[in-house]
Write a structure and sequence with these properties.
With 328 residues, the protein is mainly β. It has helices at 37-40, 53-59, 70-76, and strands at 85-97, 107-116, 119-122, 125-136, 140-143, 148-151, 155-156, 159-168, 173-183, 195-208, 211-225, 234-247, 250-254, 257-261, 270-284, 287-300, 306-319. A hairpin with a 5-residue loop joins strand 16 and strand 17.
């Protein structure tokens, strides 16, 4: 949430609870999309996306009034190093599978809110700190004492965050690096990992007028905690991103987050989704909006309990960045 993406969180405590949460860019991810990385940084879902203003004029054309067209704004929102500010909200619905009793009957609905106010540093560089706040409406968890799944009430989940420095190059290459973490501040212990987590993240991408391709990787370890969760945590999130322009602000895009759990048993460490989405950037009055719908299918899943399908609606208004001229 990532971040960068919170996508899946498995927790075993004295209730032997198994809990799923969304992570980003962010968090990562956030280790979400972190929705994608495309939407979260401005990717992100992750990181929203931009090029330098001088390059944007080469990639796209302004309309007759001199204002940016929908296609030009969409091009900016494809760049993970964008200085544009967004208030991204992702509404998500999941189905699940697993070997635990009743796992195949479980579903869950959640919302991930990730604002982004990057600080342009000049010469194509940008600095950003992005929180990722998940809200769960009916998250399933397994109660070991009862031997069955229970469902949480509406609650705020653990807070993800990342901070990064990125740069766009004239060649179209984009590079980002920084720190990612998770804070166990959920309002309900049943959907909390009860662990503080920290790690690093890095992105390498390539952007042209046709779209964007990128790979956003992060890793988190547990660095402290409270409550009953004493298990070690070491998980890598791999957010692979593609976005292809269809013109007039439309694009085909997705940013699934694969995870590798280093603490799980061998042969049961990967969770790997594939996805496709349709996005449209449009102006409503004076405000640009990025709207999208995405579907992901988990083709590789961990055995006990894992998402099977993910359906996602993305709403991301582009707002004025108060830090846009801070260092320029």
């Amino acid at each position: 949430m990532c971040f960068l993406k919170l996508d899946k969180e498995i927790k075993m405590n004295n209730k032997t609870s198994i809990v799923l949460a969304s992570l980003l860019l962010t968090t990562g991810l956030m280790a979400e999309e972190r929705t994608d990385v495309l939407d979260q940084m401005g990717a992100a879902d992750g990181l929203a996306v931009t090029v330098d203003a001088s390059r944007l004029d080469k990639l796209t054309k302004k309309d007759a009034t001199g204002e940016k067209t929908d296609e030009e704004i969409a091009a900016e929102l494809r760049n993970p190093a964008t200085p544009m500010s967004t208030m991204t909200t992702k509404w998500e619905y999941r189905t699940y599978e697993g070997s635990l009793p009743g796992a195949n009957d479980q579903t869950g609905a959640s919302m991930l809110f990730q604002p982004s106010f990057p600080i342009p540093l000049g010469e194509g560089k940008v600095f950003a700190v992005r929180p990722a706040v998940p809200v769960f409406f009916d998250t399933p968890y397994f109660d070991g004492d009862l031997g069955q799944f229970e469902s949480s009430t509406t609650t705020i989940g653990d807070i993800g965050f990342d901070m990064m420095v990125g740069k766009s190059f004239e060649s179209g290459l984009i590079a980002l690096g920084g720190m990612v973490g998770t804070l166990p501040w959920a309002s309900d212990d049943d959907v909390s990992a009860n662990q503080y987590r920290l790690g690093g993240e890095a992105l390498i991408g390539y952007m042209q007028s046709w779209g964007f391709l990128g790979l956003f990787t992060s890793h988190q370890w547990d660095v402290g905690g409270h409550g009953s969760n004493k298990e070690d945590y070491s998980t890598t999130a791999i957010n692979y991103i593609y976005a292809f322009s269809l013109g007039d602000g439309w694009q085909i895009s997705s940013a699934p987050i694969a995870t590798y759990d280093w603490e799980a048993q061998s042969g049961n460490r990967w969770s790997f989704p594939v996805g496709v989405g349709i996005y449209k950037t449009v102006k409503m009055g004076e405000m640009p909006w990025k709207l999208g719908f995405e579907v992901q299918k988990y083709v590789v899943k961990q055995d006990e309990f894992s998402p099977d399908w993910l359906f996602q609606i993305v709403i991301a208004p582009v707002v004025k960045n108060p830090f846009a001229g801070l260092f320029q």
